[in-house]
Write a structure and sequence with these properties.
274 residues; 6 helices; six-stranded mixed beta barrel; alpha+beta
């Protein structure tokens, strides 16, 4: 029997319009021009930051992007971050990487911490179009000078600056996790470990012995789906980044005898650049 999560993904896949209504807009988040463009120009931009969880903890367990236990292990471990809707972008911002640093020279170091978007903070300090980072205790503490992590955490909310940076997953290639509940008539994929921009703007799939690329629908977080069938593997997957529209094709990456909850790793990745 399919889990409640897989059932929810299936219902979203068949019920959502091609361009889902933003929950941020429904609940007062909205999108700012600077946040929506993802700041690929390399300029430092103003934001605010807080921290959550254990003081030296690694951050969220799972998160709205759907990465699950990946956030607990290297290369994501201690680098995860929850961001406001202007950066989360209904989940299309999942996987993007940012450098964040605080500004008080009396307690902040000059180095920036690198954060991977794995979760959303939809309310409070993150609402009403604000650009906000809610960081793990470990990531927040790394912005301080040596020995001052505790004093920095005591500040609570900080003024910070941020900019996009290329994601680097240390030799890992892009992988596709087949979500639980997937069948030959409903296929749901989670994208992992994209170098470079890290975010995905569109995703297509091609069946065995076919020349037709089928558009997948963005459900939420880093999850995409397709309702059509019967679907016949092996499947090739084509990704296009959200910000710079770079394209990558992983041919026959998902085998004919694929199974739900399995992860299939490609032999390629995007360039480590923006």
């Amino acid at each position: 029997m399919a889990s409640s999560r897989s059932l929810a993904l299936f219902l979203l896949c068949i019920l959502l319009p091609a361009h889902p209504i933003s929950t941020a807009l429904l609940f007062g988040g909205g999108k700012s021009a600077a946040g929506g463009k993802a700041a690929l120009d390399g300029e430092w931009r103003p934001a605010t930051a807080t921290w959550y969880g254990d003081a030296e903890g690694d951050g969220s367990d799972g998160g709205a992007c759907g990465y699950g236990t990946l956030v607990d292990v290297v290369p994501m471990k201690a680098r995860v971050g929850s961001v406001s809707p202007v950066l989360f972008k209904d989940g299309e911002g999942c996987g993007a990487c940012y450098k964040v640093k605080c500004l008080d020279r009396g307690i902040c170091s000059r180095r920036a911490v690198t954060v991977i978007v794995t979760d959303e903070c939809p309310g409070g300090l993150c609402a009403f179009g604000r650009t906000h980072f809610d960081l793990s205790g470990a990531a927040f503490s790394r912005m301080a000078v040596a020995g001052a992590g505790g004093r920095l955490r005591d500040r609570g909310e900080l003024s910070v600056v941020y900019r996009r940076t290329a994601c680097k997953y240390g030799g890992k290639n892009i992988a596709f996790r087949v979500n639980e509940g997937s069948t030959n008539f409903w296929l749901s994929l989670l994208v992992e470990f994209e170098d470079g921009e890290g975010d995905i703007g569109s995703m297509q799939i091609k069946q065995a012995n076919s020349v037709q690329w089928l558009d997948m629908r963005h459900v939420w977080g880093a999850t995409w789906c397709l309702v059509r069938g019967p679907l016949v593997g092996p499947f090739s997957v084509r990704l296009t980044t959200l910000s710079a529209r770079k394209t990558l094709t992983a041919r026959d990456v998902i085998p004919k005898n694929w199974t739900p909850k399995a992860t299939y790793t490609s032999r390629l990745n995007f360039e480590v650049s923006l």
